[in-house]
Amino acid sequence: MKKVEIHPEAVERVKKFTITDNNLGFGKYVAPVMIQAIYDDGQWQRFDLLPYGPLLLDPCTKVLHYGQEIFEGMKTFRQPNDQIKMFRPEQNARRFNQSARRMSMPEIPEEQFLNACDVISAYCKNLVPRRLGESLYLRPFMIATEVGLGIKPSKQFLFVIIASPSGNYFAGDSVKVWIERDDIRASQGGIGFAKTGGNYAASLQSYTRSLQAGCDQTMWLDSSHKYIEEMSGMNFMCVINGEIHTPALSDTILDGITRKSVLELAKHEKIKVVEDKIAVDDLLKKIENGECTEAFVCGTASIICPISSFLDKDGRTHHVKDGSGKISMLLRDKLIAIQAGKTDGPEGWMHPVKEIHF
Ligand code: COI
Taking residues 166-184, what's their average pLDDT? Predict the structure, then answer.
């Protein structure tokens, strides 16, 4: 494994950095340091902790034209004894490499990925927020840096991790959802399961539509326009007759780490979990007849947030019976308590970050 070289200027910057704002929001503040690693000649050459700053790219750099890019979202939490811990980071390392394979990019050895996350978290220890539900959000990403306009996989790459002390992703306590009946996010054999910028870029036209309709998020259907897949930046779940239902994973759905954690927690609470196809029109009927009592989104950034209503293209709004989410809030509280170290979660979920004195 390559050691991360620490640049003295990065240490100076992080020592001086403070945030006084009580409302961190999401991605509003960014730590003054970043990890940067260079891939060339078929291997990862070096890893550095540098001062945060712009990336200088030739206008012919492949990522700017062909979108060869992947990223992750993960979190470091402050514990009651002031230690810091990451939530299931090995899952992110694994998913990062799955995305890399689909996008013809080099993998990063898991141990190397985790070490880079450890180093930036340790140097940013003072920036890990203290309030419940807040965290240091890490955004590892990789871009194709070879220069040239030929459509072929790049041979050079840049891996970067930036860190953002963050709070709530959504401003409100619940979200209104726009059912996207026209655009499709992903199709079979495509890149829907990969965490790559193109999937998010493809969601933006619908995001604008959803905002114009007074909603917060798009709910995507599969290419038959019938079955629910996921939201633009989170997974989807609902409670039907007391059971949690969520679309079964496929190559068109992101394998969310919060998704799998919520399902594990629900099973632990003896709540039945069903992973299967969910036809959107069936769901709307069940909302109307009261069989579906709750619906919610879940993801790393958004944690768990109840859905209060669904707006359809025909102009009809479907209000969810329990729009503030009894079961979803129970699961949210459990998850947040585990992440904050207030209760023990399943073995291995919280990864201690080694203290670095500087
Ligand atoms: C995350 O939840 O970490 C994500 O990556 C979704 C994001 C685009 C808000």
Answer: 96
299 Cβ closer than 6 Å to some ligand 1 atom = yes
Residue 163: CB partners within 8 Å, gap ≥ 6?
A: 30, 31, 33, 34, 76, 120, 121, 124, 127, 136, 137, 138, 139
List of residues 6+ apart from 32 with CB closer than 8 A:
10, 13, 14, 16, 17, 51, 52
Is the Cβ atom of 140 under 6 angstroms away from ligand 1? Answer: no
Say how many Å lie between the CA of residue 234 and the centre of ligand 1.
7
User: From its phi and psi, is residue 247 left (phi > 0), alpha (psi between -120 and 50) or beta?
Assistant: beta
Q: Fold for 175-324, please state it.
A: D-amino Acid Aminotransferase; Chain A, domain 2 (3.20.10)
Q: What is the CATH number of domain 4-167+347-352?
A: 3.30.470.10
Q: Which atom of ligand 1 is nearest to the CA of 137?
A: 3
**Which range (31-45, 55-69, 321-335) has the least confidence?**
321-335
